Amino acid sequence: MKSLLSSIVLWSLFLVGLSATVASGAVLDGTQKDVATYGGIALSLVGGSRIAKKDPIKSFLSSPPVLWFLFLFNGVVAAAAGFALDGVQGITTAAGMGLVSLGAGFGLLQSRGTRSRAAENHGMRSRGTENRGTQALETQGRRTPTPA
Question: At a CB cut-off of 8 Å and minimum separation 6, what does 97 contact?
Answer without folding.
Answer: 74, 75, 77, 78, 81
